[in-house]
């Protein structure tokens, strides 16, 4: 029996050989076709200048989206370059802000989503497709976020906060699929972060930042150093270190974003809309007597929070009653506290024969803590039967029957239980680049790891004696949590005890061999061939330390082997064609072959057109391939089970005696039969570059994604319980629950236009600069199931996917700079959209009503950045973000459980920010 590795590499080399032969045949035919003679114009007379010639370097370079090493030439693919100067002009000082500001990004995953399934880190999302963007550091992969879950809607990506911005030379963004070269994850595009190549001496930078409304204060210290210049000294060593801290932004810091209740008017009627964390459980507690549907008597509520006809801050009134509900959000954290330690070291040395050996080490530790997203545990008591019982007289005074009254309590006066995430990320790489027998080769090996641990503040006041029975016995629960209340000291004494919630680790071990060469010339231009082999081992180790009854741990591993080929042919002097193909073989999900064809035609006078068509894929994450016997809690439905007749029939077949009108728990599971997600991509663009000081290009793009991994929508299950009865069962709490395993049931179709324009104008006293970048989306829709219609989220909320794709995002930067000072402003624009329908309560009748027609307006912010160099080695920088303190528009789309009424994914809630920095070189 043949060894599987031999079979794979035989297939890879056969594919490479066939495509190479096709390329050679095409180039040979082009050489053999004579061109008509062209009349020669007389040459101008030669002028001899005694001045020495200007030195020009013709070193070969590697371009993102290509495996071919070449002298720098224009290529057929749309690559946006964000230079170090662009970064400085923006005033942004961390990589997350730089990438999130780009118009091609939407539906990004940010630290504001700490308590959601995919939260806890910062990940890019080109084209509004989380998990479909490949992030590279110097052309090599980074390990994705270490906490993989089983849930199919989870789209794990790379934590981009791990890379120190001070080490970055430029960011190259390929806004086109590139699976034919890079393999999995490159469906929406590729972000290649390229570090500085040489630095001599020491550079120190100190930054202080904050907000004018309070919260979010922080600082950052950066050290950069280097020795040697590769060409002059034969070696070069560089290092960058960053230490940073930023305080949390709490709900109390932005009361306009944490009210919990909002008032709206419709058709002359006033309604209120409450967030999911608004609760009757308060401190002091609330007396509650259920109503009687038979007699029409409504439920009654009373607590001492309601004084002089109003509720205190962070509380809202129970409509029509002398009682208040906890607002739920002012005690939550909008953005977590962050501490970071980053170190990047790289070095190169020249070898005999002109080859170059290099090594890189990246280490980052990120602590995200001091954030509260969960409510305190809620307790319900009955009232004792005798007049001396705690709460008995208070119930009488409120006009309630103590025998039918309950006491609802939760310590809402204190900050909620805290959480902390700790990430540790490594990548160690080494390799050799050189030339051998006209082949430019690049051999490298690297190891990358992402480790994540989550910790919870363990405040268990139940087992610590606070609850001794189901009857209220503690009179301190009737009082506020003031310093003289013994209950305050008791609860505070339980704080700062953290327990490990879960931990996860993902490892990549990779080896690459890449080579390219010029095969021949056609009309003075090279026919270029690139080829390579890759081996990668991916492993994950995920362990739950708490809540093991409804969660599970797992370990998994797979090997990936790949071979690829790229051929660039100059059909004519103005027309280049590039073809590439890659074969990937996964040990768990099988093979995937992806191809791409791209072309560029130089029209003349600075005009050019380009286009591409190709296929792509994304392999299922290891976690989503695991199937478990235990239940895996994925969360709750966003709606209440209406206990329809069909649901009652299903529950009867399950021998369930009760149906609860409440939100239902959803349990997920993996699926070992998952297939890779597959895509087709097309681009067509035009560019105009009349001079070195101006260019503009626009590219139309389209992505069709099929076999998208997802779970069956809970709303679909509840819409027809009889048809989807196999997904309904009785959970461990004896209540109806839903099962949502992973399937390849989704499809996505997206298209749009990207625009990039740069202009500069040197003058006697400085250089004027302008950069305009924009993304206009033409189509964005999804469906889950062959019998389901497509539902669009383009400029509107999609309730099936819980997503929004803004139609237009733009970014304008303009200003002037010289050797001493610079001043640049940036305008950021995100278009508005149609909002989700919401259920409101009529403030007069108390009846619920579905409210429609919400429109979220466009969001615009303006940033200003200035620098001044009082001496060549010292620079002072000042930046004001959102200078006019524009407030995010109201939006009921849920992107974070810590915020209600505002979209944290597309709108920033920081308000006006400022930072001041000082850097010095030695």
Give an overview in words.
Residues 1-58 have low confidence and may be disordered. This protein has one domain: Maltoporin, Chain A, CATH 2.40.170.20. The chain is globular and about 100 Å long. Helix content is 9%, strand content 47%. It is mainly β and 922 residues long. It contains 10 helices and 47 strands. The strands form 8 sheets. The protein has a 22-stranded antiparallel β-barrel. A 5-stranded mixed β-sheet has the order 3-6-7-4-5. A 4-stranded antiparallel β-sheet has the order 12-13-42-43, with no helix packed on it. The N and C termini lie far apart (64 Å). Strand 16 and strand 17 (324-326) form a beta hairpin. 43% of the residues are buried.
Question: What is the topological layout?
Answer:
Elements: H1 4-32, E1 60-62, E2 69-71, E3 79-83, H2 84-90, H3 95-100, E4 133-137, E5 140-141, E6 168-174, H4 179-182, E7 189-195, E8 201-211, E9 218-227, H5 230-233, E10 235-246, E11 249-250, E12 261-266, E13 269-274, E14 286-289, E15 300-302, E16 315-317, E17 324-326, E18 333-335, E19 337-350, E20 356-372, E21 379-382, H6 392-397, E22 406-409, E23 418-436, E24 439-457, H7 462-466, H8 486-493, E25 498-522, E26 525-544, E27 554-570, E28 575-586, E29 590-604, E30 607-618, E31 632-640, H9 645-653, E32 663-669, E33 677-691, E34 694-711, H10 714-719, E35 728-730, E36 736-763, E37 766-784, E38 791-792, E39 808-817, E40 821-830, E41 833-834, E42 838-842, E43 848-851, E44 855-856, E45 859-871, E46 874-881, E47 913-921
Parallel strand pairs: 4-7, 32-36
Antiparallel strand pairs: 1-2, 3-6, 4-5, 6-7, 8-9, 8-47, 9-10, 10-19, 11-18, 12-13, 13-42, 14-15, 14-22, 16-17, 19-20, 20-23, 21-22, 23-24, 24-25, 25-26, 26-27, 27-28, 28-29, 29-30, 30-33, 31-32, 33-34, 34-36, 35-36, 36-37, 37-38, 37-39, 39-40, 40-45, 41-44, 42-43, 45-46, 46-47
